[in-house]
Write a structure and sequence with these properties.
Blueprint: H1 12-50, E1 53-58, E2 65-66, E3 72-82, E4 92-106, E5 114-117, E6 125-126, E7 136-139, E8 144-152, E9 159-162, H2 170-176, E10 183-191, E11 196-198, E12 200-205, E13 222-226, E14 231-233
Parallel strand pairs: 1-11
Antiparallel strand pairs: 1-3, 2-3, 3-8, 4-5, 4-7, 4-10, 6-8, 8-9, 10-12, 11-14, 12-13
């Protein structure tokens, strides 16, 4: 706008800049809309190629650990967030939690494993429970520790029990514990907002008798990871 008596000519950028700025804003808005749409349609592949990969690893090679007098022998899993951008610093997997998808149980007199699904999938507890929430962030340079399960000598019979965080469905109490002569396969899945996760399963079996001493309790139970062919997005 010209002011009366002002003979200054308006500059080129003074006229063009507002239109240029509006055009740049429109381009960024369009790119953002397309990115959101692509994420919604194929977010799993985006997580796979750009986000960290979450991997379960047995902690201490599944060696049990506990303290005499504490009445429990514990087994833990480590969850690692492997970064795809190692040269650009640490990556972080957001809002991670682990669910028990299903299990397979072989009882004393069974030859084959029986499959069991849950209408509401229970969550495992992050260690130390209950100080950690159900959902946590995991950095690529700082693995998280998951409470996988424990053997409590006060149980009758003594048995291995999965360490679920807030509640234990009746089906878990009936099918999920492992007593002498039994075996259970636990199929775990980890979820995160921005990460890709490998499928993971663990078989817990109790093939040997226990002599009643706390020190030998862990040696009665075999805890072994199961290799799964497929992976899933978190």
């Amino acid at each position: 706008m010209m002011i009366l008596g002002d003979t200054t000519e308006p500059s080129f950028w003074g006229e063009v800049f507002p239109y240029w700025l509006a055009g740049v804003g429109a381009v960024f808005s369009a790119v953002g809309t397309i990115a959101v749409a692509l994420w919604a349609v194929n977010g799993d592949e985006w997580k796979k190629f750009f986000g960290p990969t979450l991997i379960f690893k047995p902690l201490r090679d599944f060696a049990p650990h506990g303290t005499p007098g504490k009445e429990r022998v514990w087994y833990h899993l480590a969850v690692h967030a492997e970064s795809k951008m190692a040269g650009f610093g640490s990556q972080k997997a957001l809002n991670c939690y682990v669910e028990l998808e299903r299990l397979q149980k072989k009882s004393h007199n069974s030859v084959e494993f029986e499959e069991k699904y849950f209408p509401v999938k229970p969550k495992f507890a992050w260690s130390p429970f209950p100080l950690k929430p159900d959902e946590i962030a995991i950095k690529s340079d700082a693995p998280a520790q998951l409470d996988f399960g424990f053997i409590d000598v006060t149980n009758d019979p003594v048995r291995f029990t999965p360490a679920l965080s807030r509640w234990m469905p009746d089906e878990i109490q009936q099918y999920g514990a492992v007593a002498q002569g039994e075996a259970v396969r636990y199929f775990l899945r980890i979820y995160a907002d921005n990460a890709y996760a490998a499928n993971f399963a663990v078989e817990v079996s109790w093939p040997r008798s226990w002599d009643g001493t706390f020190e030998n309790l862990g040696s009665c139970v075999d805890v072994c990871p199961i290799i799964l062919e497929n992976s899933s997005s978190a």
